[in-house]
Amino acid sequence: MGKHAYAVILDAGSSGSRVYVYRYLKATAARADGSPTDLARLPEIKTKNKWNKKVHPGISTFGTKPEQVGLEHLKELVEFAADIVPKDEVESTPIFLLATAGMRLLPDDQRIAVLENVCAYFQHHTKFALPDCDLHIQVIAGETEGLYGWIAANYLLGGFDEPEKHDHGKGHHTYGFLDMGGASAQIAFAPNVTESEKHAEDLKLLRLRKVSGEALEYRVFVTTWLGFGANEARRRYVQSLVDAYPHSQELPDPCLPVGLLVNQTGVEIAPGSSDLSAENPHLLGTGFFPECLKATYPLLEKERPCLDAPCLLNGQHTPAIDFDVNHFVGVSEFWHTTHEVFAMAHKDKAYDFQTYQQQVTAFCSRDWEDIVADVVAGKKWGKKVDEKTVEEVCFKASWLINVLHEGIGVPRVGLEESGKQQVGGWENKTKAVIDGAKDRGFLDPFQAVDKIDGTEVSWTLGKMVLYASSQMPASTNTSVLPVGFGSNVPGVKVPFDFQYAAGGKSAESSVPPTELPAAPEGVAGKDWHDRIFNAGYARRVPGILIFGLILVLAVYLLCGRDRRLRVNAKLLSLVGRKPGKRPRARGGKLFGGTSPQYERVLEAADPDDFELSEVELTSSSSHTRLGRSSGWATPVSRAMSPDTTRASPKHRVDVDYLSSGSVMATTGVSGLGGRVESKEHLVAPRGEGARSRAGSPSRRGGPLVGPFKENVD
């Protein structure tokens, strides 16, 4: 066993899955060989460009064929990782698969099936460490993805390890994080002291640990804007054009280069094509970028009511951003749209609003044929700039500019050289921001990045930093606080929804149980709640208990009056009471009791006429029926003819067991309700065997009423 430890993380995205292999020094080696400076840092994570691999498509495409996800999708990735990790380290190397957008859209049953098959494949076809599938293999929320990205960016920039070199003023030394994909966008940042105190309940508590064992704590705000990714914004924009020109076959689009013809999904249409005369309208590029900016601004939906001020986009609450101390880095689409197309002019330079807008305006006003000949065919702006990228860049640029400056309120560096901009009643920028950005770079209010010091800014790196940090033993044995994140609850060291970095409560943690409060009423606590009350658990355990209860009750009722009396006598003797004269029942006869009002007599029947059939157990939230009272509902018995007693599956005993206070009725992945069904009624055949006398008075007060046979004295 060497001095290095490894971890394997799979990013299961919507378009494909990418595996990353990471390495770090084990705690003993890091402390033995480390200098005081090294000990005061977070664990050093190492990876290489050749230590990651991507396959297509995403695992969400296996929703209808989950059993094939292993051999057809995961096999290539895990074999790739196994070739990198030293053979003697494989069994101690944890493997994680964290799924994002694509898997979030699958129906519950398909998502669960895919994850279960991923788990099964890892367990049976790899030797990587997998102590808990529910925690190592999961679909993460957009907020979690954003928090991991925030960790990765600050780790690479040095905001954690060298705070004195990243002093932004007011004691602030971390960077904000922006991410934009196709469907959503995320923001994560640590507000200034004033905003942190004002909005403490909106923040996430994040705890890391240095190599020395010293704990680091941060309060971070994270949110996701669903539908605000580049592709979803484009879809909404095209729909707005269709609505604006309801009777037009050709829709003028200022966000396309001059003369470019595309259909509503963005596929280019050749001039003279029959597609131009099709029923669906098509788009014609007019290349007027200022108009494009105006047309995309409404997509920010800033007019939506803000129920918890302040808000930025879509009426979603966001604490005020003090750009004097909050400097942001943007990845994914923020990088591709600002740097990839204009790589020659922007490579390794900070985002400059004025320069960028001038370049985009000039580019988008060009004729499409000239762009194809010059930029695409001539590779003038790099090999990565293909025809599809150029088609989309004008819209994406306008959307990005609006999100950054009109939505989030990032100061327009290079244009707004003085003055203050007020958005939503709070200050977004000051002149000090511009004056402080001496050499541009990361002291600007915003900078787009792809790699920092040669390492890709990936949210998987943030997950890895968190995990490696948890493997460093704490510096003290008293009140050891675990590494991970959860709700920021004042006075609570380990909140109810705390997610442990190592995938479970760390063995080193000595936090007393009193530090782990239960989830407050009305809070889903989804991260722990769904793991305990998952669909499989919910279907099995309550179902078995209900089946046992119904079975015991049915046997007791069918054993006859004398046998019930003997059973009662034995039960009384077990508790030290002598059987005697039965007390008179009040309000009716229950389980053999007598009534002062009447005595119901049945004609003799053979006890063998009764038989308990097989019970068919189903449990589904779709079968839940709300009872009129809480507690277990009474079984409903219905008589049937002798010839259908055994044969007909349509006749059954329905038992509704939903209780308003029952955990089983309110928990689970998709909710739990249940229904116990039997194929046969627990009734005596009609005819000569047993019939209630015609003159028998009606029963009053008894909870079970039915043709159960009783012996006649």
UniProtKB/TrEMBL annotation:
Coiled coil: none annotated. Residues 615-651, 668-713 are annotated as: Disordered. GO terms for biological process: CTP metabolic process; UDP catabolic process. Gene3D superfamilies: 3.30.420.40, Exopolyphosphatase. Domain 2 (3.30.420.150). It comes from the Eukaryota. InterPro entries: GDA1_CD39_NTPase (IPR000407). Residues 676-691 have a biased composition (Basic and acidic residues). One of its GO terms (cellular component) is membrane. Keywords: ATP-binding, Hydrolase, Membrane, Nucleotide-binding, Transmembrane, Transmembrane helix. ATP binds at residues 182-186. The chain crosses the membrane at residues 541-559. Residues 615-631, 692-702 have a biased composition (Low complexity). GO terms for molecular function: ADP phosphatase activity; ATP binding; ATP hydrolysis activity; CDP phosphatase activity; GDP phosphatase activity; GTPase activity; UDP phosphatase activity. Belongs to the GDA1/CD39 NTPase family. This is Uncharacterized protein. It comes from Baudoinia panamericana (strain UAMH 10762) (Angels' share fungus).
